[in-house]
Specification:
This protein has four helices and two strands. The chain is mainly α and 118 residues long.
């Protein structure tokens, strides 16, 4: 019988080199969400700039964003705002540190070091 894992569910990791993860971090850290928090719709608009072609594509984008929010919550980077009328989320202090560091590391250091090594 396999050993039980008591640490809860596992979530895929984020990478500060992945452009999609960095775009997600930037969308979650946007200043417009600092007071009220953000909803799925807010992140979807920031992640996918052109408007969807049809309702099916809009639904797929919404579902993808929902999975990303679950992933962010699983890593403790965002938390649900309790008793909010809509499903709103806020960046946790831990998430603020981690996501800001990942974005800063990529923007400030990665390009210079990558070009220097090439």
């Amino acid at each position: 019988m396999p050993a039980q894992n008591n640490r809860g569910p596992r979530y895929a990791r984020f990478s500060h080199l992945n452009r999609a993860d960095l775009a997600l971090f930037r969308a979650a850290l946007a200043g417009e969400h600092a007071i009220q928090g953000f909803r799925n719709t807010d992140l979807t608009r920031r992640l996918y700039s052109p408007r969807p072609r049809d309702r099916e594509e809009a639904r797929r984008r919404c579902e993808r964003t929902s999975r990303l929010i679950v992933k962010l919550r699983g890593h403790g980077l965002v938390a649900k705002i309790p008793r909010a009328r809509a499903r709103r989320y806020r960046v946790t202090p831990y998430g603020q540190r981690v996501m800001t560091a990942a974005v800063a590391l990529h923007d400030n250091r990665f390009a210079d070091n990558y070009n220097a090594a090439a």
